[in-house]
Amino acid sequence: MTVVGVIFVLAMYFLPALIAAQKKHHNASAICLLNLFLGWTCIGWIAALVWSATSPPPTQLPPQYPPYYQHQLPPQYAQQQPPQQQVGPWNQG
C-alpha cells in the first residue's frame, strides 16, 4: 500500500471526527474518542458518523421577555381587582 493509500484509509477512518471538528460540534472530543476506540467495529464507526452529523444545540437562546409587574402596568390596570367569583347552584358548597 502506498503512502497515499494509507492517508486515504486514515482519513476515511477518522471521517466522523473530521466532520465533528469541521462543524465545531459541542461533543467533538467524545466523537473523536468513540471513533478512535470503537471505530474499528462497523457499529462504532457508524454511530460516530451519525453523531457527528447531528446539529449542535443553538449557541444563542431567544430573548427572554420579563414578566409584567404591578409597577410596569398602565395605571388603569395596576389597581384593578380580579373579578369576583359568581355564586350559582353549580359551585355552592
Note down, in words, how this protein is organized:
- The protein has a domain at 11-56.
- 49% of the residues lie in helices and 0% in strands.
- It is built from 5 helices and no strands.
- The protein has helices spanning 3-13, 15-22, 28-38, 42-53, 75-78.
- Helix 2 packs antiparallel against helix 3 and helix 2 (15-22) runs parallel beside helix 4 (42-53).
- It is elongated, with a radius of gyration of 29 Å.
- The relative contact order is 0.11.
Provide the fold topology:
Elements: H1 3-13, H2 15-22, H3 28-38, H4 42-53, H5 75-78
Helix pairs in contact: 2-3, 2-4, 3-4
Task: Supply database-style keywords.
mainly alpha; 93 residues
Give the amount of beta strand, in percent: under 5%
Could you give the distance between the termini? Answer: 90 Å
Low-confidence parts, pLDDT < 50 over ≥5 residues?
A: none
Alpha-beta content class? mainly alpha
**How many strands in all?**
0
Helices and strands, in order, run as HHHHH
Radius of gyration: 29 Å
Mean pLDDT: 79
Shape: elongated
Major sheet details: none
Q: Which percent range fits the helix content? A: 40-55%
Total DSSP helices? 5
